[in-house]
Amino acid sequence: MPRERDPDEPKIYFLPNLMTALNLACGFFAVLMIFKGLIEVQKNTGELPLSAKEYYEISRRYYEYAILLIFGSCLFDLLDGRLARLGGQESPFGREFDSLADIISFGMAPAMLLSKAVLFPLGNAGWAIALVYLVCGAMRLARFNCLAALPKKPGASSDFRGLPIPMAAGFIASLTFLLIDLYKSDHELQLGIWKYILASAMLGLSLLMISDVRYPSFKRVDWKTRGTLGAIVIALLLVFATVQFRYVMPVVLFSLFLLYGFIRPWVSQKLRKEIEVETDDEPSATLPDEEVRKEV
């Protein structure tokens, strides 16, 4: 018998939450792949510890799978918000579900990946750095949910405060993907300076996630967004370059977004509108200084 719906029960929209569930599934299987790599390493460890070359040969395949799954999570995370806004189906349930999925896909999975695929020579220090990243990512998501629950002010900015955790995870995954490829021809790579560079980058990303550096949300970009012929050509070229140079281009794209937050205050309003796909009848992407101080 059909029962009467509880008015306090949250609305659950199918398509956006399906994308979020697929995001979570990719994160879950990414973690499983990392554990699978660890198990394979343990099976082949004898009385003497494995060399970096042996560790790489055994675990490389599983870590590559984990990286691709994290990229898949980024794709599904992009789709769930777009579908929700396109159908007018944004809801508190979807926001909370998305954050819970993100802490697995973009918090736990990248933290484990980097600590075991690149930072394993650092021992407990590598785990500590990964923990800092995970905690900062969780704080970033909690702050986002708190701000999203506040009443919207007229002309309020839709910018992200702090680096979004999917972008931080994408940067970590893409850089690790590149290092794995480089390691094929240089088996001393992990014993060199790269592990310290990656450790510093992860700490920097952790601080950036909880900072007040503002990044565009691109929430106004949807199927109805008008574009120019030049923009379409550039997008096609980027897609082609990403497929052709799949180990290098993800790092370039995520790095450009990361750096854009720092140079954005000095970009002219006209150029910023073109980059962030705004129109003149839309509110400005940045708040006046007084509004920024009030929000902070």
Q: N- to C-terminal separation?
A: 51 Å
Strand content: under 5%
Approximately how much helix is present in the residues?
55-70%
Number of helices: 10
Regions with little confidence, pLDDT below 50 for 5+ residues? 280-296
Kindly report the average pLDDT value.
81
Trace the largest sheet across and list its strands.
1-2
Structure summary, number of beta strands: 2
Please give the radius of gyration in angstroms. 21 Å
Shape by Cα distribution: globular
Class from helix and strand fractions: mainly alpha
Largest sheet: 2 strands, antiparallel
SSE run: HHHHEHHEHHHH
Explain this structure.
This protein is mostly helical and 296 residues long. Helix content is 67%, strand content 1%. The chain is built from 10 helices and 2 strands, in the order ααααβααβαααα. A two-stranded antiparallel sheet has the order 1-2. α1 runs parallel beside α3 (92-117), α2 packs antiparallel against α3 and α3 (92-117) packs antiparallel against α4. The longest helix has 35 residues, at 52-86. The protein is globular, with a radius of gyration of 21 Å. It starts with 13 loop residues before the first helix and ends with a helix.
